[in-house]
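Fold this sequence, please.
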Amino acid sequence: MTRIFTCLFSFLLAGALGAQTTADFENFTLDPETFLNGSDGNGGFSAGNVFLPNNYNPEFNSWTGFAISNTTDVTDPSFDNQYSAITGEGFDGSSTYAVAFAFDPQVVYLENEAVGEAVNGFYITNSTVGHIILREGNSIAKKMGGASGTDPDFFLLTIQKFFQGSLSTEKVEFYLADYRSSDSSEDYIIDEWTFVDLSSLGPVDSLLFSLTSSDNGNYGMNTPAYFCVDNFTTSDGVIASTTAVTAPTFSVQPNPTTDWVNVQLEAGQSGWCNIYNAQGQLLLRRQLWDDNTAIEVQHFQSGHYLIEVETEAQRSARWLVKQ
């Protein structure tokens, strides 16, 4: 986010006062050994200043995107255990974490004061299903390294950023399994919580998560498309003085919606509304006043959209579900 400071002292002070928010997913109340897979139809999960989208199919009781879990089974590689991390717990012994199923690329949205700021990073590990199948193989997916253990196999997560409507070519790569080395002693499959540093990406509006593997078939990747994340840490903007500047407060109603959405700022505020699709493309820009501004979204496809509100000095964002 671009900001203008009146002097170098203000700039230095701003850097010193920047805050962080960590999404540890402990805000979700789960019974022991349970999960949230989107069956409530809410379309995703907010924690800290991130939103993890979820697409649930009630006909098949299936989902894509993200789920929330506290299950601890580290031995069962079956579909029934798709919500467990290979660590048997969240980062640093916590109980709750997020599970991703990302056969297709998935977008993680930033919310509130984190929009347009740098993302510090997050912790990642393999799921139980993923780890065991990577290690042993099954009827669909091969064992990493093959029968000889020398095949140059890999399972890779690539993270790119969306910023101001564009997908950047900058990326961070993290290997969930890597057997490419000529020295087999260097082969590994991640089995503990490991930090992924995203600070090199700079300012971010949302993040694109994509999985690739050396093991592919006629229908795409054979490797199970799961991984687990925890402690997703975002930057909360730069504060230019010792007095905190509050990000613009706005409401979005109704949400979910089918035809129209009303965006309302607090009294006395004015600004602009930007709506982005899941690919980070800017679809609409509309001026806002302190009364309700009705925006037609009937022509949008069903899915998740990021509504970003700008005032003179700050930005804030929320997610919108279009049915």
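Helices lie at 8-17, 128-136. The longest strand covers residues 166-178.
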